Each structure stands twice: as structure tokens, then as C-alpha cells.
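Entry for the shared binder. Reason: the reviewer on the internal report wants the predicted structure included alongside the sequence.
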Amino acid sequence: MKTGWLLFLIAALALTASAADITGTWKGSADTPNGTVERTFHFKVDGHTLTGDTVSNMFGKSAIQDGKVDGDDVSFTLIVTVEANENKVHYSGKISGDTIKFTVSVPGVDQTIEMVAKRVP
């Protein structure tokens, strides 16, 4: 009987530690002091590693760097070019079904932006 409980516990822990599969296309928008930023995300998840790219109405195309998915947490970095200057932009978010709520930050800038992305069917 102890073996049965042990197997159940191991299976339960494996399920809680697995990464959400957000592979596919997602669209998000955020209001900023410079207007509304719309971004399309193309995600690919392999284990806990997130790769892909994004396209924005303001900043063009960017590759996802340092992407991670752990349970319902997701994080990655983009390099965006603004007036010929490259800037790192960090995304961290919570996955809930077909919605991801991101907090977006730029190192050295004392402001964050909230962005909501929805899975594209």
C-alpha cells in the first residue's frame, strides 16, 4: 500500500512541476504613454524552454531570448530598437488557460506596463 501512495505522490508532483504548453500564436496589447502597443507572439515550448519570435506595431520583429515556462509562470527577454538604440525588454507573466497576463519592464526604467495576451485559435 505504501508503494501506491508513493507512486501517486510522484505523479502529482510531476504534474504540478510541468510547464504549460503555450505553443502557438498569441496576440496582446498594452496602453503606454506613447500609445497602444500591439504584439503578436509566436511561441514554441520544449520542456521548460520557450523560443519563438514576436512582431509589434511599434517595434517590429524580435526573437525571444532566455525564455522559460515553469508551471503557469512564463518569462523571456526581447531586444527592441528605439531610435537606433537597442534595449532589453523583460516579460514575466502568469498563464491562465488561453490568457497570459504579462508585466513588461525595461532595465533602468522605473516603470512597468501590464499586457494581456490571448491565444489565437
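Summary line for the report: The CA atoms of residues 16 and 71 lie 7 Å apart.
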